[in-house]
Amino acid sequence: MSLNAPATIADKKLLGVLKGERPAVPPMWLMRQAGRYLPEYRALRAQKGGFLELVYDSAAAAEVTLQPLRRFGFDGAILFSDILIVPYAMGQDLWFEAGEGPRLAPILADNDLSALTPDFSRFEAVYETVRQVKAALDPDVTFLGFAGSPWTIATYMVAGQGSKDHGAARRMAYGEADRFAALIDAIVAATVDYLCGQIEAGVEAVQLFDSWAGSLSPIQFERWVIEPNRRIVAALKARHPDIPVIGFPKGAGAKLADYAACTGVDAVGVDETIDPHWAHAALPAGMPVQGNLDPLALIAGGRAVEEAVDAIRAAFADRPHIFNLGHGILPDTPIAHVEALLSYVRKQGDRS
Questions:
Q1: Structure pTM?
Q2: Residue 239 a catalytic site member
Q3: Pairing between β-strand 142-148 and β-strand 245-249 as defined by DSSP bridges
Q4: How do residues 150-165 score in pLDDT, each as one tens digit?
Q5: What are the residue ranges spanned by the domains of the chain?
């Protein structure tokens, strides 16, 4: 297809699946497909000197977004950025410690929201990345934007960094529920504006990452995962009704069914711990699903991947399905295994 020709939904297979289509070959992209397993990414990051420097150089971030498309020909491009751009714009300082991950200050376990001075101009470099990618992207490829969901973002804002049990945020949610609700409300508002800005700059669908949803009890999950995501989706649909929203509450387990039914998302991501046959039976009829190959199976490669692909494809044979991992691709994933996965998924689809 010519780069100058207008694309239709039929050309954009991934977007078509998000709108309910069921092609013989499932479209495919991989979470964190633009990342450290690619030598071209490592070279560019070393040149820029750090992760945040890379994110805030729009030309470089656009290049990173496009790198896996050139190498593998995925059906979806995922914006290269970070979920912590939202708290950064809300007024926390953000930096990355080598080998230890992100840091935010001041931490909200010890400070109120009033201690922060928002600077939403910090979204602008991301919007410029979107515009540059959109201008360069093959029109058959669906362009995905994203944001972190409020619970996950709050865990970082409260503790100032990642943690194993998200205890600081959970303590605040139980012990200072009104204060925590005010934080969630602020994150919801910032996230809606951020995603709308991405949509207006050119993304065609968005994903909400709730990476730490699995740490909550059912009652807390309903309050801090389902309800805030429902509000985000409703606000997005009011402003951009044709833009699909993928929800990905990692670790939700059986709570995924309520999430799918109650948030208003158009599709759900299914992590590697969920039985795809259960997911097909439990999720709303006809709802598109995305996933759920174990990233470690991809590292193993060979028959382990093929058996997993066959099981996933069989479970979702009667449902719109985007083939993806159950979480992000790992840095030590062999490139040859990604190539083999693409070949196998597409070959098996052609035979069905």
A1: 0.95
A2: no
A3: unpaired
A4: 999 999 999 999 988 9
A5: 13-351
